[in-house]
Amino acid sequence: MKYERFEDLPVWKLAIELALGVYELTKDKFFNQPGDARDQIRRSSLSVSNNIAEGFERGSTAELLAFLYIARGSCGETRSILLFIERFSEAAHLKSQISDLKSKAESCSRQIRGWADNLQNSNIKGQRHLNDNVRDVYDRQKRAEAFDKKIKEIVRKARPQDHPDE
Question: pLDDT tens, 75-127?
Fold first, then answer.
């Protein structure tokens, strides 16, 4: 599926949920103590969606990839701070929220990694570099690959004796 706006990207939506969850978590009295854990985790969690958005809007695959890896790094930073907070006995009452946020951060990270891997294996340089000719060639190639995959599946189903372990 082709996305026209970053707001439609499932991973961006999940990243927003991560940041909202972090902002809710950090309203707790545990975060009223001295130190900058609250500000740091808020910045790192919001950085995930912001970097996805900025990379998407840049118009080149190379820049998108760079911003995706920054976003992925911010997922890791958010998880690291959550793991740090989790070690405090004073934060025991936050265990469920922290677990949920770690799971969201891990999911964001996996989705970003999958997207980045897909982009690295693409020959499209990005919107900024697309013209009608390049787009037509790319679309034909994708249709041919999908057709080839479908034919192989039909052949596999028609000849089950060649695949006894399935």
Answer: 999 999 999 999 999 999 999 999 999 999 999 999 999 999 988 887 655 55
Domain boundaries, the chain: 6-128, 131-166
* Largest interatomic CA distance in the chain: 69
Query: In this structure, are residues 26 and 42 in contact, taking their beta carbons and an 8 Å threshold?
Result: yes
Class of domain 6-128: mainly alpha
SS3 content of the chain, % helix, strand, coil (to 5): 80, 0, 20
Beta carbons within 10 angstroms of residue 135's beta carbon = 12
Exposure string of 67-77, with b = 16+ CB inside 10 Å and e = fewer, is: bbebbbbbbeb
